[in-house]
Structures are given as structure tokens and as C-alpha cells.
Specification:
The complex is a heterodimer of chains A (about 325) and B (about 450). With about 325 residues, chain A is an all-alpha fold. Chain A is built from 14 helices and no strands. Chain B has about 450 residues and is of the alpha/beta class. The chains are: A mainly alpha (about 325), B alpha/beta (about 450).
């Protein structure tokens, strides 16, 4: 067996270097391994401290809170799983999850299809490519409250532009924001308009990873554009799509500002999303129940996300 | 050495090291989770601290007070300048803050707690354990403050807010449209009279839905409470017990349901485009609402601007009270304030000193005609003969001050606001909306909302 340390050549080579010329280099050689060992920890320490203070600590504090009846003042009494029991038997909690689930169905599949189509088109465009890419991201960076106000005006039942257009072609007005049947699709449309540009960016970056040679080879084999889309683009975009899927699932289940500003969770709590329901507990100082609600939400979102990740692995 | 064994040795060491790091992190986090806001003692809740007035002749110090941003902030800002002119030793840091989103966390953590906060009456009850009891400092003024305002700031015998405004309910009506229909608004004395006038108007203008039926859950509950306060009741009694299942609420809900059933109501959210459209087209001509509706003719209505007037609300029974309170705000002083006595001095000046309340309600740079969306809760300041704001041009030059102040004096007391009031909107506000859409009866609203409020709010306190 030969190792580097046992090699005679190495011994011959090392001899002069080992000979100390002064005391200083020897000290440096002794401290160097410690420095090397500690350096990475020192470099990551600021992040670890911030992470502990602002992520891990609040997480554990919230966990502790979820087993108490604390209302923001006075003593918190340990009540075991009572908050969880209350939520799991409460119609409001399940209705809020149901609302988020329906919004997910209305938003995420449509958004992924739309994002792929738009990204493919943007990739193919040669002129003004930069302009169009920016144009698609503009809704994402527009303040939500401004967008929400526009939505309120556009979709007003009596004086909104959308109903005016329907009226122009002889259709009856629709109670977009004031009927429980239409409020969710209208809110989903707002979310789609606001965030699809972001998903397009992710898909676009995935598109640019695909080897152009694959398309040339497919074209030589006689595959048309549609065939190339289904057989090359979509399968190779799978990772980008899964990433977007998980990200948007999180976003939909945390959706708060849109219903808060546009519908205030109504009509009849039909747009009270899981995020808004959680907020309602916190604002009425029912902090223990709010904490328990947030953990139940984490479990649900984590389960759904893990399911998607598993699907991705199975495909691989 | 066998490479496999060496690898497994490394893996074991790695596991031990990882386990050590994980254990250390867990210990650290477990230790940390014991820190933060104090949730382990009964201290603040049990301590019913009563504030005393400052004794110094020339008080000195700095206070921070929070107000809502917008026009009211500017009004208070100019009034505070008058306060600092009177008390040159006091510096006031006046901050425009999103109080709803900041106050709860600030009070819980005790960090950067302001000395005084402008707060909706409906929210005072939620924070009493963090606030000074102002019973003693308010004692010289209490008998001269509208009873309704004292009641909404009273919890367990303590008074936790310096009453600011009284928001009397009034019946706003489109005088020009009613005149064209041959309806004399002075004949509307009761809610039955209002129904009859609405029917007559509808005959004059088919398709019109003359009475406003609120479509927002929060505002509809607020309006319901205005009607209830007119009858001397409210969602909860002084003992905290729910009073929803009562003849008064049944009467109010039945009346609202009748407006719906007979097609006399416009379903719209307060001053949203649908509402403004119906008001401007004179399809909606009766608006039972708080005095702050007068903002609409001044700022939002165009076609019907100048046509609107205000009168006291109709009574529920002939000779009954002609107004109820809808909304309102007060000033609270947190226990963790650095200079609570100086904060009291400021609020005493603004509300009970003629120079102060004149600066707030009288003509100023923001409102040249005076602040006319509410009236003072301090009765000596609310003298019908000494208006603080001028007649309103957009209301046809009507002296709304006199109407509102006189209506305000009819508001019965005895309607405290429970800490869970805003939470009840999810149940009562929502069920009320269902009734106005025709899917619940008044009794079903009372039963269902009552049970939900009891289970989800009262029992969980």
C-alpha cells in the first residue's frame, strides 16, 4: 500500500521545508489548522445568529404559544391541544382551507400553462424582447394595494368597466365582488394578473437551459413546433415548473392582502383564505389560537409541497 | 485499514458532531423560547393602575402621541401647536401611524410604547389591561361627557379612554328628489313613516330603491349597533353577557328585512361606486347613517351635491330617542408610557379646554369651515347655540352642527362595547348580510350569530 505520507520522494521533498528558519513560521503552521477549522463557522456565524433570532426563535415561541390561551396580556395558561382541537372542529378553519384550495385550483394550473406559453413566445421573439420581458414583470412589481383598488373599480357591479363591456354586447351585469360564486374567480384573476410575470421569469430561465441542438435535431426528424413543445420543452422544463408549483402553492395558501383589500374576506366569508383567517385570530388578540392555526397551516402546506417534490422525484 | 470501516468511522464521527450541533441548537432555542413577551405572569392584567393628574405648575418633558394619518392628523397637529404654546416645557412628538397594525404588538412587547394613542371606541375594550384607568383624572368632567361615550370607555368600573367625538346617527335625505315626489321629510317621525315615504317615492320613481341597505359586513354591524344604541341596548351588557336575543334586535332586524322584502333598499357598500351612482341618480334618497356621511356630499357626490340634508333619525316608537351612536374614537394612555401624566395634560387641553376643542373642531387650515364629520363628546363644547363648524354648502347651507348636536343629546347610554366586538363581524355581520340577501330570517340571524359569538368569542376569552 502506498500513501503520500509514506512516499520516500515526499520525505526527500519535505525535509528542507520542515527545517525552521525562524520561530514565526512555526507558529503560523501550528495555528493554521485551527484557523482553517474555525473560519467557515466564523463566516456563517452572523447568518446563523440572525436565523436563530428571527426564524428559529419565533418558530419555537409560536409553538409554545399555540398550547396556551394567551390574549396579549396577563398570564398564559397551558391548555394543551385545546386550540388545535378547537380549530380542527371549527367550520371557519375548514372553510378557510377550502377557500384557499379552490383558489389554488383556479390559479396554479392556469398560471403554469400561461407561463409556459408566454415564456416560449418571449423566447422566440427577436425584436423588442427586453421590452416585452419587462412588460410582463411590471404587474409583479406594482404595489398590490393600487392593483386592488383598480380591481374594485373595474369589477364594480353597477359602474364597473367590465360590466359596462358586458352590457355593450347585451349581457346582464355580474356581481363580481358581491356574490360568493364570483368573488373567488375575480380574486383569482387578480392574483394571476399580478404574479404570472414572476412565474414567466422562472420558466424563461428554465427555457434558456435547454440545448438548442435538441430542437434542431427534432426539426431534422420532422417534428413540428407543437410536437417540439410537448416532447422537448415541457419535459425539460419540469424542474422549473415544479419549483414554480411549490412556490405558488405557498403563495396561494398564504394569500392575505388580496382578499383583505378587495373583498375583506366576503361576501359571506367566501374569500376568507387560510392566511386571512389566521390574521383574524391575531387581530382579535386570540394569539394562542392564531399560533395553533399557523402551525396547522404549515403542516398542510408542507404536506402539499412534499407531495409535489415526491412527484418530481418519481418522474426523475 | 479497511476503507469501508474507515468510512463508517468517519460517518459515525460526523453523526456525533451533527448530533452535538443539533443538541446545542435545540438547547439554545429552547432557552430562547422562554424569552420574549412575558406570558407567564398575571402582572399587567391584575394591575388596575389609576392615573393621577400632574401636580407641577410648569410641567416639563417629552411625549409621543400616535394619530391616524390623513386630514385628522393635520387637524390635531395644528391643535397641538396651541398646546405647546400654552405649555412650553412640553415637547410633543406627533406621529402618523397605522394604529391598527402597530398598536397590539407595541403594547405586547412594551417596545417604543407611545404616551397617547387615538383609538376607535370599538377597540378600547381589547387593550384595557395595557392602559391607564383614567377614572380619577376624568372625574371633574365625567358628568359633562355624553353618557354613551363614558359607557363605551368603561370596562369593569374603570374608564380607559378620554372621549373624543360623538358620532350621532342622522337620517340623510335628498331634499330635491323628495320635494319632486311630493314628500315632506318633516313628516318622517318613526321608522314606519320612513317605510311609507320610501314606498311613495318608489311610486313616483319606479325602479328606485330609496333606502340604503349596507352591503359590507363590518359597516352593516356598525349600523345595526347604531339602531340598537337608539334603543338603549348593544351587543353585550355591562356584565359582558350577550344581548342579541332581545325584542330590540328582533325589531330592528325585522324592519331591515321588510325593507329588503318590499324592494325598497339599495344593496351597496358605503360610498363605493355602486352606492355613489345610486345616490347621484336619486334612486337612493334615504341614508340612515352616522354624521360622517356628510363627507359624501362634500367630497364624493357630483350630480346630487347640494341636494342633501340631515335630520334626526326616525324613532323606533313614537316619542322615542331620535338618534344612536355609530362609531367614534377616544384617546388612550398606555401603562408603559414614559410620561402618561403629560399625555393626559395634552388630551385634557384638546378636549376640555375651550382653546383646545375650538382648535380641533373650529375652522382651521385643513377645514376652513371647521371639522364637521363629528361633534364633541364634551357637552359644554357641543352647544347648539355656539357652533364650532359652519353651515355646510354641499348640504344646501344647512346648519348641520345644530341638527347633530341636538340629535347627539338624545343618544341613550347603557351600550358598552365588548372587547370581541370586531370579531363578531365574522358572525353577526356575515349573517346580517345573508338576511339582507334573503337567505336568513331575522330570528335565524339572532340564533345563529348568537351561538357563534358565544362559542367562538365569549367562551374563548
Amino acid at each position: 500500500m502506498t500513501t503520500r505520507s509514506a512516499s520516500p520522494a515526499a520525505k526527500v521533498y519535505r525535509e528542507p521545508a520542515v527545517e525552521p528558519r525562524s520561530r514565526a513560521p512555526r507558529r503560523r503552521r501550528h495555528t493554521l489548522p485551527w484557523r482553517r477549522l474555525l473560519a467557515p463557522y466564523v463566516f456563517v456565524l452572523p447568518f446563523v445568529l440572525v436565523f436563530l433570532a428571527f426564524s428559529v426563535y419565533p418558530l419555537f415561541f409560536t409553538l409554545r404559544l399555540s398550547f396556551t390561551d394567551w390574549h396579549g396580556s396577563g398570564a398564559a395558561h397551558w391548555i394543551g391541544f385545546d386550540n388545535y382541537r378547537y380549530l380542527l372542529t371549527s367550520n371557519g378553519f375548514w372553510a378557510s382551507l377550502g377557500n384557499s384550495g379552490v383558489l389554488w385550483l383556479l390559479i396554479v394550473p392556469a398560471q403554469l400553462v400561461l407561463a409556459v406559453l408566454v415564456a416560449v413566445l418571449l423566447n422566440a421573439i427577436k425584436r423588442l424582447r427586453g421590452f416585452y420581458r419587462v412588460a410582463f414583470v411590471v404587474p409583479f412589481v406594482t404595489p398590490l394595494v393600487a392593483v386592488a383598488q383598480i380591481w374594485i373599480v373595474l369589477f364594480d357591479q353597477d359602474n364597473g368597466a367590465v360590466n359596462a363591456m358586458l352590457g355593450a354586447v347585451g349581457l346582464p351585469p355580474v356581481g363580481w365582488l358581491v356574490t360568493s360564486g364570483w368573488a373567488k374567480p375575480t380574486l383569482a384573476l387578480l392574483f394571476l394578473w399580478k404574479t404570472t410575470g414572476f412565474v414567466v421569469l422562472i420558466v424563461l430561465s428554465g427555457l434558456q437551459q435547454i440545448d438548442r441542438g435538441l430542437y434542431e435535431a427534432a426539426a431534422l426528424d420532422g417534428a413540428g413546433r407543437t410536437r417540439q413543445l410537448w416532447s422537448i420543452t415541457v419535459p425539460l422544463l419540469r424542474r422549473s415548473l415544479m419549483f414554480s408549483l411549490v412556490l405558488q402553492t405557498l403563495a396561494v395558501f398564504q394569500m392575505f392582502a388580496e382578499p383583505y383589500v378587495v373583498t375583506k374576506g366576503g361576501p359571506y366569508t367566501s374569500t376568507t383564505t387560510a392566511g386571512l383567517y389566521l390574521y383574524n385570530h391575531i387581530t382579535r388578540a386570540d394569539l394562542g389560537t392564531g399560533a395553533a392555526n399557523s402551525f396547522l397551516l404549515v403542516i398542510v402546506v408542507m404536506a402539499v409541497s412534499l407531495l409535489f417534490v415526491r412527484l418530481l422525484r418519481a418522474e426523475d | 485499514m479497511n476503507p469501508t470501516l474507515r468510512r463508517s468511522g468517519r460517518t459515525a464521527r460526523l453523526r456525533v458532531r451533527r448530533g452535538g450541533v443539533a443538541a446545542a441548537a435545540t438547547l439554545l432555542v429552547a432557552g430562547l423560547s422562554g424569552c420574549g413577551p412575558d406570558i407567564s405572569s398575571d402582572g399587567p392584567a391584575a394591575d388596575n393602575a389609576v392615573l393621577q393628574a400632574p401636580s407641577e405648575d410648569s410641567p416639563k418633558g417629552e411625549i409621543t402621541v400616535w394619530d391616524r394619518s390623513g386630514d385628522l392628523y393635520k387637524v390635531f397637529d395644528s391643535a397641538i401647536k396651541k398646546f405647546t404654546a400654552k405649555y412650553p416645557g412640553v415637547t410633543v412628538k406627533h406621529e402618523a401611524v397605522d394604529i391598527d397594525s402597530k398598536l397590539q404588538n407595541t403594547l405586547i412587547t412594551g417596545t417604543d410604547v407611545p404616551d397617547g394613542v387615538f383609538l376607535d371606541d370599538a377597540k378600547v375594550g381589547r387593550y384595557v389591561s395595557h392602559l391607564w384607568n383614567l377614572k380619577d383624572v376624568l372625574a371633574p368632567y365625567t358628568k359633562d361627557i355624553a353618557k354613551q361615550k363614558v359607557d363605551v370607555n368603561t370596562v369593569g368600573g374603570g374608564i380607559y379612554g378620554v372621549p373624543f367625538d360623538l358620532d350621532p346617527g342622522l337620517l340623510f335625505y335628498n331634499a330635491k328628489a323628495l320635494s319632486a315626489a311630493g314628500i315632506d321629510p318633516n313628516g318622517i317621525k318613526t321608522y314606519d313613516d320612513l317605510l311609507a315615504a320610501a314606498k311613495k317615492y318608489q311610486q313616483f320613481k319606479p325602479g328606485a330603491k330609496p333606502i340604503h341597505l349596507e352591503q359590507d359586513a363590518f359597516n352593516s354591524q356598525l349600523q345595526l349597533e347604531m339602531f340598537a344604541s337608539q334603543l338603549g341596548t348593544g351587543l353585550a351588557g355591562p356584565d359582558g353577557k350577550l344581548r342579541l336575543n332581545s325584542p330590540q334586535y328582533h325589531q330592528i332586524l325585522t324592519w331591515l328585512d321588510t325593507v329588503r322584502k318590499e324592494g325598497l333598499g339599495t344593496r351597496a357598500e358605503y360610498l363605493k361606486p355602486s352606492d355613489v351612482g345610486a345616490l347621484d341618480s336619486a334612486d337612493e334618497v334615504f341614508y340612515p347613517w352616522a354624521i360622517w356621511f356628510d363627507f359624501a356630499p362634500q367630497q364624493q357626490l357630483t350630480a346630487s351635491k347640494g341636494d342633501w340634508r340631515a335630520m334626526p333619525l326616525p324613532a323606533w316608537t313614537a316619542g322615542g330617542a331620535r338618534s344612536g351612536a355609530m362609531g367614534g374614537s377616544s384617546f388612550v394612555i398606555p401603562k408603559d408610557a414614559k410620561n402618561p401624566k403629560l399625555a393626559w395634560l395634552l388630551y385634557r387641553f384638546l378636549m376640555f379646554d375651550q382653546a383646545g376643542y375650538t382648535a380641533v373642531y373650529g375652522p382651521n387650515a385643513v377645514y376652513p369651515g371647521g371639522l364637521n364629520t363629528s361633534v364633541p363628546a364634551y357637552l359644554p363644547a357641543a352647544d347648539p347655540a355656539k357652533p364650532l363648524f359652519r353651515p355646510i354648502d354641499a348640504m344646501g347651507g344647512q346648519d348641520v352642527w345644530k341638527t347633530a348636536v341636538e340629535a347627539g343629546r338624545e343618544i341613550p347610554g347603557g351600550a358598552p362595547i365588548p372587547a370581541w366586538w370586531s370579531g363578531a363581524v365574522d358572525y353577526l355581520g356575515t349573517d346580517l348580510q345573508k338576511m339582507l340577501d334573503g337567505t336568513l330570517t331575522p330570528q335565524q340571524v339572532i340564533d345563529k350569530a348568537g351561538q357563534d359569538i358565544q362559542t367562538n368569542l365569549i367562551d374563548r376569552k
